[in-house]
Design a protein that fits this description.
The chain is α+β, with helices and mostly antiparallel strands. The chain has 6 helices and 4 strands, in the order βααααβββαα. The radius of gyration is 21 Å and the shape is globular. The chain starts with a strand and ends in a 32-residue tail after the last helix.
């Protein structure tokens, strides 16, 4: 499975501008599934699921990664071709489809994060001490509102990706016995109205 897949085809873009297909793709990003398994997860008919899977396969967004025989029937396991998707600059005139795709992808990421948080073990959210130093905490959660130029925000995105790559590199070098599994998700996007209201101290 690739990292980021660059979408260059309008039909691919339209496929990922559909909220259900985005939900389906996120399942296929997690692990391989059969049509039967997905029909049970989404509580939809196998025929409808197979239709969407065939369309995603035809568009090159999903692929069959393995087959298994069960009771004389060949089961096909589908998986996403990448862990993330981003439109090519040639598709930028299609602003509505791009906006819809990005919105649905981010909404599904938030849903995935919510699901992981609700199923996290209680000790994952317990602090071993009451340190006020964030570097001593065993989890992170924060929301920020920053006024900055677009160039500065793009610099931040680049640095954030570099930091995640460094985290992955350092983790790869660690002993397996010392490792714990962490789920990390990040969001950042432009808003029109202020999110937080700051009341200045009366003495200022």
């Amino acid at each position: 499975m690739a990292g980021i897949y660059i979408i260059k085809d309008l039909d691919q873009l339209k496929a990922l501008s559909d909220p259900f297909r985005v939900r389906l793709m996120f399942k296929l990003i997690e692990r391989p599934y059969t049509g039967q398994q997905l029909s049970e997860i989404f509580e939809l008919s196998r025929a409808r699921i197979h239709y969407h899977l065939k369309e995603l396969e035809k568009l090159g967004l999903a692929e069959i990664v393995k087959t298994e025989e069960k009771n004389g029937i060949i089961q096909k396991f589908y998986q996403s071709v990448a862990t993330g998707f981003y439109p090519h600059s040639s598709l930028f005139p299609h602003t509505k489809e791009i906006s819809d795709m990005k919105q649905y992808l981010m909404l599904e990421m938030m849903e995935q994060t919510t699901s992981k948080l609700l199923s996290a073990p209680s000790e994952a959210l317990e602090d071993v001490d009451s340190s006020e130093d964030p570097s001593e905490w065993n989890m992170m959660a924060s929301s920020w509102e920053i006024q900055a130029s677009e160039d500065t925000f793009k610099w931040y995105i680049k640095e954030q990706f570099k930091l995640m790559e460094e985290l992955d590199r350092r983790a790869e070098a660690e002993e397996a016995s010392s490792k714990k599994r962490y789920f990390v998700s990040n969001y950042g996007f432009r808003v029109e109205e202020p999110v937080f209201e700051r009341v200045k101290d009366k003495d200022q």
